[in-house]
Amino acid sequence: MGREKRDPNLSVPQMIGFTFWMAVFYFGTFFLIIVIGFVLADAVDDARADLDARDWTPVSGTIIASEVESYREPDGNTTYCLRIEYEYGYENETYSGDMISHSLHSSTYDAADCGSGRRNADDYPPGEPITVYVDPDDPNRAVLLTGWSALDIGLGELILYPLIIIIPLIWIRILAHLTRGYLDSVIALIRRGMVKKAG
């Protein structure tokens, strides 16, 4: 059994409605592509920065403070943020920092490990000696984790990132099918108008 062919002969009111929804679909697709582009670009930049930080200079440091803060999201869920502060010495100067890694940050705090699961401040007790990785070009920049261990990738991200790519591809295929149907309807409407004029 072959695929049923869609009738392109729509009335003028139907074409106006079709045109409106096609504009909505195209605008929505354009907006979705921009959002996904920003999300992926931000994730790639953070990952690249964490991988590049493997070449930074390791120095001795000390945890000054650590705490877990929580706040309620608009949807009612609670987000927990582990915030730490440490100091380190580099070329006879003392610096302080709060960045765990480039990937571990949030929109609420510049440098924090945030998520829905409760964080453990005991992993970074005050007074604990640590290794700090310092940017030799800017000693004020430092992180505690570098390379793959610094990437904020969990099960959620392993599922989410492929879906971010797959879903738009499926949507673009659907939109292409709708576009073909729309163009067929436009051509049919133009031809009907030409026939009426000729008659």
Protein model, in words:
By secondary structure, the chain is α+β, with helices and mostly antiparallel strands. The protein has helices at residues 12-52, 155-198, and strands at 57-72, 78-90, 93-97, 113-115, 129-134, 142-143. The chain folds into 2 domains: 55-152, Beta Barrel (OB fold (Dihydrolipoamide Acetyltransferase, E2P)), CATH 2.40.50; 153-199. The protein contains 2 helices and 6 strands. Strand 2 and strand 3 (93-97) form a beta hairpin. Helix 1 (12-52) packs antiparallel against helix 2 (155-198). The longest helix is centred in the C-terminal third of the chain and has 44 residues, at 155-198. The chain is elongated, with a radius of gyration of 27 Å.
Q: What average pLDDT do the residues reach?
A: 78
Tell me the overall shape: elongated
- Span from first to last CA? 38 Å
Bin the strand percentage: 15-25%
Total strands: the figure is 6
Q: Which residues form runs of ≥5 with pLDDT under 50?
A: none
Based on CA atoms alone, the radius of gyration comes out at: 27 Å
Estimated structural class: alpha+beta
Order of helices and strands: HEEEEEEH
CATH architecture of the largest domain: Beta Barrel
Q: Please bin the fraction of helical residues.
A: 40-55%
What is the CATH third-level topology name of the largest domain?
A: OB fold (Dihydrolipoamide Acetyltransferase, E2P)
Classified by CATH, the class of the largest domain is Mainly Beta
Q: How many separate helices?
A: 2
Q: Note the main sheet.
A: 6 strands, antiparallel
Domain module tally: 2
What keywords describe this structure?
199 residues; alpha+beta; OB fold (Dihydrolipoamide Acetyltransferase, E2P); elongated
